[in-house]
UniProtKB/TrEMBL annotation:
Identification of the protein by name: FAD-dependent monooxygenase
Lineage of source species: Bacteria, Pseudomonadati, Thermodesulfobacteriota, Desulfuromonadia, Geobacterales
Cytoplasm listed as a keyword: no
One Pfam entry name: FAD-depend_C
SUPFAM superfamilies: FAD/NAD(P)-binding domain
Length: 523
């Protein structure tokens, strides 16, 4: 039975081969007794700026395990039995709507059981989608069905490709292993804060699609869900592009958080929906070198990765919070609109994170009390109104309204330096945002600077508006993961209100696939 060793440390730039003698010393054995050493976790400890360390957890196999007793940072690894996926034969017609992480991993999981499905995506394949996005960023020509929000891979395809999650789920390793299988960097298996990067992620998504087709799945692009046939309280068919009706027994609905027309369709059909809180705000952009200095100190070792940060602030009097979100080291701020006449900003990084700027969302919480009316679609309209106002403020040409951080907090001065394309227009962002949101963001920025001295900088720029942090509603489902109101409808992922990021969305898609397989096996 292998051993798990925690808290092995190396200096930045040191060769990882040095871990073997460190492990041997910790175990009290000769190095030659180690037959295998595998990285389990690697992180950066930057709490002491003058003594930054790389911290490792490793799994070690020995020739003679009986010589070592668990102690302190040394524990035995309980080897879990490999997951079993009984092969199932079924004539059930499963349709998956959406090729983001929830939809793709639901499909991959069904394939493990020998099941197949038809997979529909309103947008285009990842290569044509990348071309459409590039045209929008260069020329301001928006394709409403193929953009940063819609298309193969989902919204996360144009992001940093973060895989961190607070969810404790045994399927996390299954997701990571599948991603590596399709071309993700192997270090995501052990990095404390794994990421793929938008450039690598596109190839991974393409590889998943090709595998699904090999497994017998049918994939349809530019196939938008426009209707659902209901009979006796359950799903019986789907309508695609207002034209083609296809029979369906189980509908895995993974629409993404921006599929507003899908939400409207569900509302018309009487599917149980509910309002939920989310967050809106701005993107902040700093020179990456400044963030490195804040986090690592001056003269930090060049082998250290581009620095990240995560900050939160709570105002107990108002009940609102501000926080950083989707931080992109060495990345760019991107135009992420999916509707004509609206401006939306987001962030994106490549795998190497080697751009000159760091950016992050700075958002404040909003909820039903901020919305107009009790409709479950009220949060959608709240988002849409902010995006329309940002479009007008930017010049009605998809330029984003922007302001120096110093101006926004009332200190004056500062330059506007933004990576956003097709460009920015200087604007007083406090007049664009709801007053409680602007006030909470200002308070949050001051708080962040107390924890990260230098965060308030003349070199920091804010762009608006960040509205697509998470779904503005929830498609309510029961313990069996089916809609409360419509049997056979399985809402899943971030767009359904049950996830927040690539990893948690993939895990939710897996849960839905397992539920479908379990039901089929029981019949």
């Amino acid at each position: 039975m292998p051993f798990l060793l925690r808290n092995l440390t190396l200096s930045p730039g040191a060769e990882e081969s040095a871990l073997r003698p460190l492990a041997a010393a910790k175990l009290g054995v000769r190095e030659a007794e180690i037959t295998a050493l595998t990285l389990v976790r690697k992180g950066v400890d930057a709490r002491k700026k003058g003594a930054i360390k790389l911290v490792y957890t490793v799994q070690v196999t020995l020739r003679d395990e009986a010589r070592v007793r668990p102690h302190g940072d040394v524990t035995r690894v309980e080897t879990a039995a490999p997951a079993r996926f009984p092969k199932l034969a079924s004539s059930e017609r499963v349709i998956i709507v959406g090729m983001g992480p929830a939809g793709l991993f639901a499909a991959l999981r069904l394939a493990q059981y020998g099941l197949t499905a038809r997979v529909l995506e309103r947008g285009r394949d990842v290569d044509r989608r990348a071309s459409d996005v590039s045209r929008f960023w260069r020329l301001g020509e928006l394709c409403e069905q193929s953009n940063v929000q819609f298309g193969e891979g989902g919204a996360g395809t144009f992001s940093d490709g973060k895989l961190t999650t607070r969810v404790k789920d045994p399927n996390c390793s299954w997701v990571l292993e599948r991603l590596v299988e399709f071309g993700a960097p192997p270090e995501i298996l052990y990095a404390a804060k794994p990421h793929i990067g938008t450039d690598r992620l596109r190839a991974v998504v393409r590889g998943i699609r090709e595998r699904l087709i090999e497994e017998g799945f049918q994939v349809g692009f530019e196939s938008r869900l426009t209707g659902i046939g209901i009979g006796q309280g359950r799903v019986q068919s789907v309508v695609v592009n207002d034209a083609d009706e296809e029979p369906c027994d189980s509908l895995v609905l993974a629409p993404g958080h921006s599929a507003r027309d899908t939400y409207a369709l569900l509302h018309r059909l009487g599917v149980t929906l509910e309002q939920k809180p989310f967050a809106v705000g701005l993107r902040v952009e700093h020179p990456q070198a400044l963030i490195n200095e804040i986090q690592y100190g001056r003269n930090a070792h060049p082998a250290l990765p581009p620095a990240e940060y995560a900050q939160t602030y709570n105002n107990e009097a108002t009940g609102r919070s501000a926080y950083s979100f989707c931080m992109c080291p060495g990345g760019v701020v991107v135009a992420a609109a999916s509707e004509a006449g609206g401006v939306v900003v987001n962030g994106m990084s490549g795998y190497r994170r080697n751009g000159p700027y760091a950016n992050s969302a700075l958002v404040a919480t909003v909820g039903p009390a901020d919305f107009t009316g009790t409709s479950p679609l009220a949060g959608v309209e709240f988002q849409r109104e902010l995006e329309r106002r940002a479009f007008v403020a930017g010049g009605e040409n998809y330029r984003a309204p922007a302001q120096s951080l110093l101006d926004f907090i009332g200190r004056g001065g500062g330059r506007i330096l933004s990576s956003y394309r097709p460009g920015v227009t200087e604007y007083d962002l406090a007049t664009l945002l709801p007053a409680p949101v602007a006030a909470t963001l200002r308070e949050g920025i001051e708080h962040f600077d107390r924890r990260m001295r230098g965060f308030i900088s003349a070199e920091a720029t804010l762009t608006a508006v960040e509205t697509r942090t998470s779904a503005p509603l929830r498609i309510v489902r029961g313990a069996d993961l089916q809609s409360l109101s419509h049997r056979g409808l399985y809402p899943t992922g971030e767009g359904a209100g049950y996830a927040g990021g690539i990893m948690s969305a993939a895990l939710d898609g897996i849960r839905v696939a397992d539920a479908i397989a379990a039901r089929i096996a029981a019949n």
